[in-house]
Predict the 3D structure of the following.
Amino acid sequence: MKIYTIGGYEEIGKNMTAVEIDNDIFIFDMGIKLDRVMIHEDTNLQDIPPKKLRKLGVIPDDSILSNKNIRAIILSHGHLDHIGAVPKMAHNYKCPIIGTKYTIGLVSSLIKEEPFSKCSNQLIAVNKKVEIGDCEIEFINSTHSIPETKFVALHSKEGTVLYTGDFKLDMHPTIGEKPDFKRLRKLNPKVMITDSTKAPEETKTPSEKVAVTMLQDFLLDENDEKKGIVTTTFASHIARIKTLLETADKMERIPILLGRSLCKYYGIALKLGIVNNGAKMVKRRNSIDKKFKDINKEKEKYLVITTGSQGEKEAVLSRIANKETPLLLNKKDTVLFSTSTIPHPINIANRYKLEAKLKMQKVRIIKDVHVSGHASKEDLREFLRIVKPENIVPTHGEYTMLASWAELGEEEGYTIEKDIFIRRNGQEVVIE
Ligand SMILES: [Zn+2]
């Protein structure tokens, strides 16, 4: 069994791993690294051909797989750092793309938007299991920060590969079920390829239920008089949006979702029945501005939910801060960030600008009303003791994050280069 560590082994972004069993290749995830686009001013991802994207390091360099027999592209969940490169690369492989309904829904919308290549791969939406040749692909329930995230087990005659994707161990998820510990205990994987993002953090990641309490503590506090409230979160964080909608109900305010990506992610979740909390959704700039005219007259009647939590320039929140919309905020109004700032210099700079502009308008800012979607060190330890893999390959992180996973492995009795392997992009691990 051979594992190709293609992308996500020296960064957060462009995740892609391939497993070779008997000359058959199974690809896990195919993501993009957006900050490589963001560092260039005036660059739009859709305007750059795939070849150039690969050169810029926006999409994984998959040249290690040329002339190989690719059997399937398996997607663990719908975040762009896991599926964003599908419309740019998948057409090069004559194989199906497999994921849950929600993930496949998001992928097919990306494929429709792709101007350069026509991806005609078969899309297979799977809830539990699918057979590809001699192998079986099993989706096991997991928890993260986007619906229908799965642990993926690839069962082959050479043993089971467990690809964890991004995960946390949430015992109180607000959408979907808890992780399937019962199944995980029985897997006995030969190798586990696993999320490292929060491996350096010596704690346990709180449940999404904690985020509900944090949000409602502030929003439902009757001693605290509020006028306009603008909230923002990650567009794909459907559980958080659901909480905001439910809280708006309790506040007797009208919730309203503004911005293209929010409407897209939430719209697909609604269509698939993942959520049933309806809300007014406004996508286009002109319609949003028209709506803001109404909201500006009676701010206390609405709970605004917008895009732009990272200070993205074109997002609705940045336009509000720039006074480019009819919604004018002042010291009686609040902007609440139900996210963390993704710790990249570009995001940090964008967020700084956004907050400074809001502060100049004397707007009250509430930050970090958020819990992470990634397992911290003590969750990973718990997970390791449950799964007991024979070998470990940490992925999804910068070198220090992968190394933290390796240290944890050592604490639990594994040995670097014997049964826990750190690799860079474009390298291999051979499992005997
Ligand atoms: Zn993710």
Q: What stands out?
A: The chain has a mean pLDDT of 95. Residues 77, 79, 144, 166 surround zinc ion (CB under 6 Å). The chain is about 30% helix and 20% strand.
